[in-house]
Amino acid sequence: MKKLFAGLVGVLMVSGIAVSAAGAPEREAAAQDAAKIAAGEKVYAAQKCSMCHAIAGKGMKAYPLDGVGTKLSAADIKAWILTPDVMVAKQTTKAKMKMKAYKLEGADLDNLVAYLESLKK
């Protein structure tokens, strides 16, 4: 009986270690995502996006971005940043203000998209 109990405890411990190790990449990915989102928030501020858009009531209230991550895919968010004229042409209602195209690339663009994609209601 003692051997059976010891064996069962050993199996549980090994499986617990395996589960713990499996969670490590997920935690690492979450930390990387959080870093990209934080960097994207800095890009948002540096590009002065709040001059035309608002997030959580801060900025130009006419064009809020709250919930944009729920409404648009990452590809659509990227298209709005790089080619807003193309995206406006797809809309049934036209905005009063014209968004300029931004020449962001690389990490700045990816981080800004990650930040905007994180804005979910």
Describe the structure.
Helices cover 64% and strands 3% of the residues. It is mainly alpha-helical. It has one domain: Cytochrome c-like domain (Cytochrome Bc1 Complex, Chain D, domain 2, Orthogonal Bundle), CATH 1.10.760.10. The radius of gyration is 22 Å and the shape is globular. About 11% of the residues have low confidence.
Instruction: Report helical residue fraction.
Output: 55-70%
> What is the H/E string?
HEEHHHH
Rg computed from alpha carbons, rounded to a whole number of angstroms? 22 Å
CATH superfamily descriptor: Cytochrome c-like domain
Low-confidence stretches: 7-19
Cα(first) to Cα(last) distance is 55 Å
CATH class wording: Mainly Alpha
Shape: globular
In the CATH hierarchy, what is the architecture at level 2? Answer: Orthogonal Bundle
Give a quick account of the main beta sheet: strands, pairing sense, barrel closure.
2 strands, antiparallel
Count of distinct structural domains:
1
Q: Strand order across the biggest sheet?
A: 1-2
Distinct helical segment count: 5
Would you count the extended β strands for me?
2
By helix and strand content, what is the structural category? mainly alpha
Overall pLDDT level:
83
- Oligomer description: single chain
Briefly note the CATH topology name: Cytochrome Bc1 Complex, Chain D, domain 2
